[in-house]
Amino acid sequence: MTAFALHDYDRVVFFTGAGVSAESGVPTYRGYGGIWAQYRPEDVASEAAFQRDPETVIAFHETRRRHVASCHPNPAHRQIAAWQRRHGGVTVVTQNTDGLHARAGSEDVIELHGSLWRMRCRQHGSMVDLSDGPYRQRQCPQCGQPMRPDITWFGDPVDRDAFEAAGRAVQQAALFVAIGTSAMVWPAAGFIEHALHAGATMVEVNTEATEASRCFAHCLRAPASQAIPAAFPLPEGAD
């Protein structure tokens, strides 16, 4: 497998999707056995559903939290975090809401679609909620209004701040590594072509080809937990 010396690139973006977390046991949303094969997103992951039946929506996300809390970062998450500790130019841009990058030790993580571990008030913004299952704070402590999970649901506008931060990181990247993403979720998938047009060295890590594979000069067909440590080895003596 081709190996890349990350210190040769001043700015690096790891762009991660559901595939990297699936190796830790986190169910994907799409595909065989995915969450949307069991639930209708309009019933559990939309603002309209929350307004109509908040208890059902919250219960769905609390079930997700309990499941994710039992999962652990895999070698791909840990290798990326280790590189961040050694290379000041490494940014993680993730479509995942599970928080596994942070649990692995990553700090510069841009969460495009929010986090299961935050609640949000429409007026006063988001707050961290790290319990393993039930949300501890359902009403905003400032205004008393019901809070919802801080996740981009179907029909929601994107998180403008997160997407702008990701856009800046991708524009500056000398190396862009897409890991475990189907390249089907827009507008997040647009960052792949953005990186290509910005002149980054393009690496795809996925067990199968995607519609975006044509954008990549290097396609590593292996699970992320194997490919990332092998393709991006730490310098000798590093953690």
Question: What can you tell me about this protein's structure?
Answer:
With 239 residues, this protein is an alpha/beta fold. It is 33% helix and 18% strand. It has one domain (6-231): 3-Layer(aba) Sandwich (Rossmann fold), CATH 3.40.50. It contains nine helices and nine strands. The mean pLDDT is 93.
Layout of SSEs?
Blueprint: E1 12-16, H1 18-22, H2 41-44, H3 47-52, H4 54-69, H5 75-86, E2 90-94, H6 100-104, E3 109-111, E4 114-121, E5 125-128, E6 148-151, H7 160-172, E7 175-179, H8 190-198, E8 201-205, E9 218-220, H9 224-231
Parallel strand pairs: 1-2, 1-7, 2-3, 7-8, 8-9
Antiparallel strand pairs: 4-5, 4-6
CATH topology: Rossmann fold
Low-confidence region ranges: none
| CATH class descriptor | Alpha Beta
Level-2 CATH architecture: 3-Layer(aba) Sandwich
Q: How much helix is in the residues?
A: 25-40%
Number of E-state strands: 9
Largest sheet: 6 strands, parallel
Order of helices and strands: EHHHHHEHEEEEHEHEEH
Number of helical segments?
A: 9
- Would you tell me the overall average pLDDT? 93
SS class: alpha/beta
Q: Give me the Rg, rounded.
A: 18 Å
Number of domains: 1
User: What is the straight-line distance between the termini?
Assistant: 21 Å
Strand content: 15-25%
Strand arrangement in the largest pleated sheet: 3-2-1-7-8-9
Q: Characterize the overall form.
A: globular
CATH superfamily: TPP-binding domain
